[in-house]
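Obj: model holo form, ligand = glyoxylic acid.
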Amino acid sequence: MPLPKVYIGLPVQEAGLEILRGKVDFKLWEKEEAPPRNELFADLKDAEGLLAGLPIKADAELFNAAPKLKVVSNYAVGYDNIDVAEATKRGICVTNTPEVLTPATADLTFALILASARRIIEANAFLRSGGWKVWAPELLVGREVAGSVIGIIGMGQIGQAVARRAGGFDMRILYFDTVRRPEIESRLGARYVQVEELLQESDFVTLHCILNDSTRGLIGEAQLRSMKKTAILINAARGPLVDQQALYRACSEKWIWGAALDVFAKEPVPLDEPLLTLPNVTTVPHIGSASRTARNGMAVRSAENLLAVLQGNKPRDLVNKEVWK
Ligand code: GLV
Ligand code: GLV
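Output (holo structure tokens):
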């Protein structure tokens, strides 16, 4: 029997390829930039599996070009690049890579909290440009993280990992989620509140929820205006959760103290994005899961999920459970 054809749309680490070798007939797209749609579609003509990265939009048009497709295995925990409803309609399994990137993403969130609170990026630039003349009481004074209040919106695995780290910094933890999670509240010392209260009370507001139609634009002008003037907004989830124009006004007019962003409405963020001109906005290029451990884990997990479906087994991380009958 010929091996099932698979298209791997990004340069996945060897740890993942090893799992697939000899089991599927894969074509690997080795460049970092996403394959052009027409090339991708031509390669998907006979493919039963697609291992996709965030730059690949898996929508109805793509599914039309891939009539044999059984699975889209996303190399990410978020899957807003995939039209899941459309995949489900066609009986195509969608999988993601939870857990393996939880520690890395929570670590990066804390790196952003600390970097923005203590102005690390600004301080580094200041020193190297020769600005440092004297140790001075008001030089690069920032916000204290220890003992402050953190508000976590979205208490899934990543939100909980952020909460555990916050505990180590003696932070008071507030959280909001669409479902209350009493079982974790005492363990994490977290208090459930509505978003309004969370925004008003928190020194650090950090987003860890999924992007969908109900969370798009979750943080806009009204929400930013309700935050403390000393507060910092952190987003290491998805850019469209935040209205970037409102955030620019909030940070430039000092409605809030600052922001730290790993993700943007449009990625890569255009260099003329006004937020990039502000010293109180810390930015990094969507590197939340970019630890060696997490990325190898994502390679393995996405390969395993893909292979499971093609071998007729229920994949561990099935997003659209209703396709599996
Ligand atoms: C990265 O953003 C992911 O969703 O894994
Ligand atoms: C700061 O370096 C201090 O010694 O207080």
